[in-house]
Design a protein that fits this description.
Number of helices: 2
Shape: globular
Radius of gyration: 16 Å
Oligomer: single chain
Strand order of the largest sheet: 4-3-2-1-5
Helix content: 10-25%
């Protein structure tokens, strides 16, 4: 990547985001605009993957809502993200945790150990 493009992207990168990895449980507070009003909605789940770098970086969060698995992909440096809070740190042996899609309940929880 050329230095001119990297310099332009650098001003759009956010530095207020915490470090997190796949396996961590995070709470992502997302700004949602409904007409004239704006509200913040919390989305809590396990990080399945992180990908990309620079302004194109994104991460996928999975949660189970009323027995149905829901995944959402967030651009990491998006202004729509109000904040990210790491609730628990998990120790995963993989970079992509897609195998959690097939597991339910305690089986999925046991696959991710707590990081100390």
């Amino acid at each position: 990547m050329s230095t001119v493009v990297a310099d332009l992207e650098r001003e759009y990168l956010r530095d207020d985001l915490p470090e997190f990895r796949p396996g961590d449980t995070v709470i992502v507070n997302v700004r949602i605009k409904e007409g004239e009003k704006e509200r913040i909605q919390a989305y809590e789940g396990v990080v399945l993957r992180k990908r990309g770098g620079g302004t194109r970086a994104s991460f996928t969060v999975r949660k189970v809502s009323y027995g149905t698995g829901v995944e959402r992909i967030f651009p990491l440096h998006s202004p729509a993200i109000a904040s990210i809070t790491v609730k628990t740190e998990g120790r995963a042996r993989r970079a992509r945790l897609y195998f959690l899609r097939a597991l339910k309940g305690k089986a999925a929880k046991q696959m991710i150990k707590k990081r100390r």
